[in-house]
Amino acid sequence: MTDTTRRRLFVGLAATAAVVAATPWLFQRRREHDHAMNPTAPESHTGPGLPNAQPFQTPLRLPGREGLFAEVALSAPLALSARAASFPIFAGKPTPVWHYAGSVEGRAVANPLLRAAQGDRVEVALANELAEATTIHWHGLSIDEANDGSGLHPVAAGARRTYRYTIDNRAGLYWYHAHPHERTGLQLQRGLAGLLRVEDAEDRALGERLGLRWGERDLPLFIADKQVDADNAIVYRIGADDWIGNRVLVNWTPEPFLEVLPALYRLRLVNGCNARMLRIAFDHQGQTLPFRLIGTDGGLLAQAWNMDDVFLAPAQRIDVLVDFGALPAGARVLLRSLEYVAMENEDESGAFAPDPMGDHPGAAPMGDALDLMQFCVAACSDGQRRQAKVASANVPAALSALPAPPDTAGWPVRPIRLRMDSDGTWFINDWNYHQVGHAPVFNVKRGSREVWEIRNNMTSMPHPIHLHGFQFRVVSRSISPPDVRSRKVAPQGLGPQDLGLSDTVVVWPGEIVRIAIDFSQPYSGTQRYMLHCHNLEHEDMGMMVSFAVED
Ligand code: C2O
Ligand code: CU
Ligand code: CU
To answer: What is the torsional sign of CA 530, 531, 536, 537?
Structure first.
């Protein structure tokens, strides 16, 4: 179940936990220690220890007509099969990928990028051709239990199920992925995931105003690290911790490059990694290229925020505007994850040095810098340059009609505590899914509004906490680590990323994050949903509960 080496070592350490909690500077020591153990490790880990891994040689895959990442409108019912097949992804041998395969007007599509509009009625039939149960979970959608695709409703090997629902959410980039009990990490690492783009009038108007056409200067970047062996196969070990990888796929392209105009681009980033938190930045010759954050998990923010870098945890999405307009032809801009203090304090003691990299040869350790892809600025005419300037100046002060976070005075507060016990089991309050099972651990009244106060132990690690079925608002952050505190732009310790709609929120060690949830929904009866850590190894180890919404 858990990584025994690491966890067994932890048992003797409970006593030191209190000391660690009181001395945050120890977190830094761990990082120095990592580097000391491997003094020749380069700062950047692109070009991992595998042959032929030259980065930025492959053009970025864009939403296309067929194959992986093909774009498919959900205006007609869609039939998908979960199956294994090989795709040429890396140089050399093809890679076996578990994926959702379909045929749309004679085109074979795999893990298609689905497109729909708010209010659409959609129908997706799943046939499971794998040798184990799977699902399609619609991450971020307001949806009923039966169609949510959580592990409560597995589709057995050889079985079928049809998901039918109306899209309630506002415009945004959502996603879908497998969610079988205890096998989510494995199935996502193998490939069972895709994007769902929802449009609405507000979002369309912004695109038109900025002159940013989807697929041209409005692009999705679906980022996932994979642990790949010398035969180009994706490796996974059930029961391992935090599955990080030695290769980076963006839109299923390894460490790609994209030729861009010296102009404004809208990029919609999705962290599809099992466990790796990214600290996203654009780098031009060692200088940060600032960007504007315009949206989060649940769509557009009320206003744009200038930023140099932003944390993007597993399952989170960000929508950003990047202006390449001031750069000369031939300039190269790296999309990278900057170094950060990973705060993996749960095994922080200094008394032992487990080898977290044993399963991940060639991978950058969590928190190390990592190059994701490269943009190459193309030559263009003065006219094109002028046009680009116009677009950049056109970004409206009010991006969307998103209301301010609610005043939660008087709302009931539900405490949620994230912690690891002394034998290395993750808990949400006193619940671990392996111990509690599918039974809801609490009930919420439909139509009620609650504040959930999520508190993470100091001897813990950052947990991206995800709620099914409801988008929520972050209303306060306290006892945040310096990297988070320094991003504050609003009262209550909130950073730009906290000011939109979210379905996944990072709670750092020691932090207390309050979220406000409105449990209104158009369904009746008992609807069960999941609350879990979207570090998929934590989820599969039981850092998950189900709760029920009832009248
Ligand atoms: Cu994206 Cu319960 O998951
Ligand atoms: Cu979800
Ligand atoms: Cu976690």
So the answer is: negative
